[in-house]
Amino acid sequence: MEPSDAQTLAGARETRPTWPAPLPASDDTRPLYDRIQDVIALYPERKSAVVPALRLAQDEYGWLSEQAFDAVADATGFTPAFCKSVASFYDMFRLTPTGRYEICVCTNVSCALVGAAGTMRAFERELGIHPGETSEDGLFTLKTVECYGGCGWGPVVSVNERYHEPLPAEQVPELVARLRADAEPDA
Amino acid sequence: MATVETDTVTLSINDREVTVPKGMSLVEAAAEAGIEVPVFCYEPRLGAAVGACRMCLVEIEGIPKLQTACTTPVTDGMVVHSHSDRAREGQDAVLEFLLINHPLDCPICDKGGECPLQDLTFRYGPGSTRMTLPKRTHTKPVPISPLIKLDRERCILCYRCTRFSEDVSGDLQLVTEHRGANSIITTFEGRPYDGEFSGNVTELCPVGALTSISYRFRGRPWEIQNIPTVCGECPIGCNTYATIREGQVARVLSRNNPAVDDGWLCDRGRYTFPSLESEQRITTPLIRGGRGLEPVDGSTALDHIADRLRAAVERFGPGSVAIIASGDQTSEEAHLWARIQEQALGGGPIVCGPEGGAGWGELAAHSATIADLDDADLIVVAGATDLVHRAPILELRIRRAVDRGARVVTIGAGATRLDTLHAAEHVSAAPGTTHAALLAASQGVALKGLSDRSVILWNGRMSAPVATVLAHVAHASGCRVLPTPLAANELGCQAAGLGTHTPAEALEAVEQGRVKAVVLLGADPVGGWPGGDRWRGLMERAFFALQVSPFQTGSSGWATTIVPSPMPLEKEGTMTNIEGRVQRLRAAVPPPPGVLDGIVLAAELGRRLGLDMPDQPPAVFADMAGSRAAFAGLTWAGIGERGVRPEPASGSGQAPPAPHVAEGEPEGTIVVGYRQLMSGPTVEGAPALHFQRRSGIEISHDDAQQIGVATGDRVEVSFAGASLTGAALVQRRLRRGVVRLATAVPYVGPGELRAAPEETADA
Amino acid sequence: MTTDLRILLDFDGDRRDIGDYERAGGYRQLTKALAGAPEDVIAAVDGSGIRGRGGAGFPTGRKASFLPKDRKPAYLCVNADESEPGTFKDREIMLRNPHALIEGVITMSFGIGATSAFIYIRGEYRAEFEVLMTALQQARERGFVGADVLGSGYDATVVLHRGAGAYICGEETALLSSLEGERGQPRSKPPFPAVAGLYAAPTLVNNVETLASVPYILEMGGAAYAEIGTERSKGTRVFSLSGNVKRPGNYELPLTATLRELIEGHGGGMPDGRTMKAIIPGGSSAPILMPDQIDTHIDFESIAAAGSMAGSGAIIVIDDRTCMVQLALRVSEFYKHESCGKCTPCREGTRWGVDIIRRIEMGEARQGELDLLLNVCDRILGNCLCPLGDAMAMPVASYVTHFRDEFQRHIDEGGCPFTEHSPISGLYHEPAAVS
Ligand SMILES: Cc1cc2nc3c(=O)[nH]c(=O)nc-3n(C[C@H](O)[C@H](O)[C@H](O)COP(=O)(O)O)c2cc1C
Ligand code: SF4
Ligand code: FES
Predict the structure, then answer these.
(1) What is the per-residue pLDDT for B118?
(2) Could you tell me if B171 and B216 lie in one domain?
(3) What number does CATH give the domain A98-186?
């Protein structure tokens, strides 16, 4: 059945957006403490800066180590216990060391209906690890995640917070090969 | 009545009609109607109800879903059912959900018999289990500090403990990690829960998840007895129960007195009771002879003391005996000793504590109550250190006042916990000039708004200049003042006549040769008072030096006679707290054999010196009330379970003299050595508390940069003719030039700070 | 019905650049609004009859009017947490039409007298965050955001705040806790955010789509907007279509359309001759509708009358291969994972429910556990602090009700009869081949 005239509104069409180029990484090289003070200044209350501060610390340390929590605590004036209590509530904070590429496969309903399991299995085969694990060379961490908001364009996968959608199982080997190649110069 | 009516609502709960104030929650309204709604997370002392556990579900007519009674405000005409089928089905559901994870180890649980979960399961719970899923397992009790263990399997995630840590004590150390079914209560990375109020969580926990290590497996609720008494560790005098089992104190619990402690205790009050059995306790009288201190029996000791005191007065004249008291004595003990000094020894100097009591009298007319903090719109906390060291529990009340909207202004060196409160403003003052800064602030913008709804907490040493400033500011603005005494019963001792001289006056008398004998009551001037060597000189040269104390102290080595005395948990009597409230101590346990009761000791001695002194607490109290103005009109029976606070004598109403304070600020480094909360012989006698001691030398960020050190690096501080090396603790909010550290002997004065030279780095 | 409506996504490509947006008439409504009285903005929104697009469908104008006047500070919080499974519309709005959101935010802030606005965007939306950052910067440079907007004397502060991965933060009070720096746990209401919200100040929380519609409402006039749609569901709505359809994606439709028009018309129907087994009509927390209900209208009331809820406007189509037990497991696992842990029935009930469903799927369940499952759902339902527990209980109960035989077969046969074909199977059954 084709849509009737009455419903053929101009908006009712597939309007898949094009992805913008990522913004360049910040060139702010000041100490973490100072950068966190800037964030604190954005909010009426200091506590609101805890999550942004944790993110800055995670970027700096790679994951939220004990040392990272102590640094956030020092800069925000809350205890490390509080900072970790907050961090551990949220899925995006890493409480264990993570590989250079963090690969997250959405396995929620819409993606599952269109092949997320296949994509996940393909990553397991290519990387030799299960979700929750990090490859021995420290390059890859594989995770399953809940709905990424890409349901119409699934299966959705993110690599270091950048979405790939759709990423069907067949395209996994190529992506992994490309990531390996990109990592080569530093490896 | 008519005016009240607009502020009340009438509703029906389980067909009972109640009229209650507007804004009250359904749980409270039900309680008014004599109906108990089951609760777990609800605890009004933790702030606004959160509705987390869902145990209190009730049916409200006209609302399709069950509602939590703890979070629902009453409205007029509401019709509520807490026992209807629907309500009970909801409560039953919640209880079942709680029990699917709860271990069935009630028979060996310390909470058994006093556990709300056990009680509610018995009363509301499902008869059988439909449990199909494996229970959550955790490592069985893990210590979260040397004081407290946590059994996560028993935890029902009511979040009372974490709300206490976040909202009441503000220490933010006991927290929840992860979320959903994975949520756990924990401290950070296994670090101990290191906060001065941590023990309260063991009382808040409605199940046996958080328990005091010292009490684990020690008692079953039916084998114990709870004696109502008062904590003798600081001048707040929190109301407590001492739990007695087989003749020993097994734990100390709070005995909620909203006017004093709100049901909270600090860990010093809660966990120092093991010092009753400390090895440092003196358990028999000792007289120095040819072969050192030799034990004697009580009456020999009393005869000897009476003889020596009489001899001193005969040889050196009346007034040649000084009494140096710590201020921890009961008022009854103080009264009898004061009578001995006044009536038998010719009225020599009496000193009460190293800060020596000058100025208190001037302030009585302006004295605030603890509860005044609840209604205050502006609270000023003046002092160079954290309030917790002198008046621990008040910190919680100030936090609550801030939550309620009060303004807090701190005046001092900075970097105290109250400085970081959301509503706190700070006036920086060099230690030693805080009173001057207070005076200036009260006349400027910083303390604009100071009024009869304000309280000034003086968190430091009392002295004549300080008292003059406080009296002046109070008189000018109408505000109330609450100075913090150092010793638990400093105010009571003074009111009972024990504390007529300042330490300086006493030392002067010694050095002018007027004093030849000394009686130390609990005090340790050699080991813990400023001018320790001058005190030692007195003792060394004394004709007679008596120490009456529960513990061996630094002064013991110079005493010629030592008599043991009981500790507060072994005493009957009264103490007067910071706000002037007279409260009753009850002997939870008898003193160890060989230790004479404090009143009996004084009375017996008095008799030997020819005085007619009563030796029963009620009689002593009556004697005291008859002769000491501060106690006039009070009766032993009238003190009751909550204490009485006699109206302080109103002042003359005349403006106090205008204070003269030195202008200008001191140059160079100022060292603040303070007595920390977790110090003193009772803390010594409770090793489990030692992890809470603060160590480290606090220095400001600027000073740290200047001498090139960071936190953890070793620094050396010299002051008062000595020098000390320790790890630096860089405090971003500490005033430049201030060095702060916990010391045995309080000190505020000039000093020097430098990075510790390499060779001593490992010292 | 007119066909030349100016609505949210009615253009090709994107209007990320402020010039494109302005050329298309953008920021004119803000300029006009600032010249008038704040109440006029609220009156127009109220007149349009628009209902919140975040999930609850509460009339936006009414909610705005609950804020006490002249209590300062007051805040506007934008709910850009979009996490309900199946929902990806706010994301497209932010990617293609970010300035419509910003214009809507500033206009609404002005309308309610907010001292600042906070955009709470889910942490995973990094590209969208960057697009908004850039757009805000442009808007700042052009004077639409910042102090003294366009010389009106109104200061519009906007803070873009990234979440960090927690579905529950889409619930408005959890969003506020999270924005305050706490764990993102919901708070008991009352007090409602309008009275004591962010930092205990009066706060309005609105969804991205709701706010991005505001400039269009103002342009059209409230009354004209109210012409579109049904008696109680006004305007157009962006529907996120996903699952087993040929052309998934976001489709903006007037609220008079039917599920059939969306799924079969715009979505192209089922792929490869498969047949439909069920429809999730409002995000994964909505009870399912059956294929014979496909002619249901997509407005709030019609979907409710059909036994489900319009929720976030996410429509997921389930084909005949799908095992309903697996679907129940996947959906309930999600809500268990996202339960914040604050209240007992949700924390413990979702865990228990998942455990029972898992054992049914694995063939380990005993007779009678299906009723136990329904009873656990029933005991969660309506007893939790926030609707998250219900979001697990409602759909699961609906799957069992509609497909009871299928659940029973798992128990009777001691395993899943659909392992081979069900697209979800691979998550639970295929052994992983890892070298
Ligand atoms: C569990 C739960 C999750 C929610 N998630 C979202 C969400 O991701 N985005 C959203 O806009 N609203 C969400 N909501 C609805 C919000 O609570 C709130 O109603 C909405 O933001 C109000 O905006 P609106 O009136 O514009 O719809 C959620 C509600 C619940 C109970
Ligand atoms: S440990 Fe006790 S007080 Fe803390 S959440 Fe668990 S049951 Fe409640
Ligand atoms: S007591 Fe009301 S929800 Fe816990």
Answers:
(1) 87
(2) yes
(3) 3.40.30.10
Residue C80 corresponds to which tokens in the numbers above? 């850009």
Residues B497 and B620 in one domain: yes
- Disruptive mutation site among C251, C316, C330, C396 for chain A (greatest number of A CBs within 10 Å): C251
Q: Which tokens belong to B112?
A: 């058994």
Counting the structural domains of chain B, the total is: 5
> Structure pTM?
0.95
Number of structural domains found in chain C = 3
In terms of domains, do B693 and B565 share one? Answer: no
Q: What is the pLDDT of residue B690?
A: 97
Same domain, C278 and C354: no
- Are the C-beta atoms of residues C373 and C336 closer than 8 Å to each other? no
**pLDDT tens per residue across span C197-224:** 999 999 999 999 999 999 999 999 999 9
| Distance in angstroms between the alpha carbons of the first and the last residue of chain C | 60
Quickly state the pLDDT bin for B728 (edges 50, 70, 90). very high
End-to-end C-alpha distance for chain A, whole angstroms: 55
Boundary residue ending a domain (C175, C203, C227): C227
Tokens (6 digits) for C237: 């709505």
Residue C168 lies in a domain: yes
Cβ <8 Å between C384 and B54: yes
Interface of A with C in 7-66 (CB under 8 A): 7-20, 22-23, 42-52, 54-55
Q: What is the mean pLDDT of chain B?
A: 93
Tell me the CA distances in angstroms from B133 to B154, B413, B466, C327, C341, one per residue in order.
Answer: 16, 57, 67, 21, 18
Q: Residue B160: which domain range?
A: 136-277
Instruction: For residue A119, give the chain C residue with the closest CA.
Output: C426
Is the pLDDT reported for residue B274 higher than 50?
yes
The verdict on C289 and C336 lying in the same domain is no
Quote the longest CA-to-CA distance of chain C: 73
- Work out the widest C-alpha separation in chain B, in whole angstroms: 91
CATH number (domain holding residue B462): 3.40.228.10
The C-alpha atoms of residue B315 and residue B247 are separated, in whole angstroms, by 46
Q: How far is CA C238 from CA A150, B694, C252, C253, in A?
A: 15, 60, 4, 6
Which ligand is in closest contact with the Cα of B40?
3
Nearest ligand for residue B48 CA: 3
Residue B691 domain flag: yes
B-chain CB neighbours of C350 within 8 Å are 180-181
Closest residue in chain C to residue B65, using alpha carbons only: C382
Domain that holds residue C261: 238-315
Write the ipTM.
0.95
Is residue B55 lining ligand 3, measured as CB closer than 6 Å? yes
Residue type, C296: T
Pair (C304, C337) in one structural domain: no
CB C331 within 8 A of CB C286: no
pLDDT, tens digit, for every residue of B220-229? 666 789 999 9
- AA identity, residue A52: P
Check residue B654 and give its pLDDT.
79
Amino acid, res. C334: F
Residue B252 lies in a domain: yes
> Nearest CA to C333 among B50, A144, B238?
A144
Mean pLDDT calculated for residue range B592-606: 96
Does a structural domain hold residue C4?
no
Q: Which residues of B653-680 are buried (b: 16+ CB within 10 A; e: fewer)?
A: eeebeebeeeeeeeeebbbbbbbbbbbb
Predicted local distance difference test score (pLDDT) of residue B649: 74
Both B26 and B81 in one domain: the answer is yes
Q: For domain A32-89, give the CATH number.
A: 1.10.10.1590
Same domain, C216 and C256: no
Mean predicted confidence (pLDDT) in B37-62: 96
Domain CATH for C365: 1.20.1440.230
pLDDT of residue B647: 86
Q: What amino acid occupies position B130?
A: R
Give dist(CA B389, CA B460) in Å, integer.
10
From the list B175, B178, B420, which residue is nearest A82 (CB)?
A: B175
Q: CATH number of the domain at B254, please.
A: 3.30.70.20
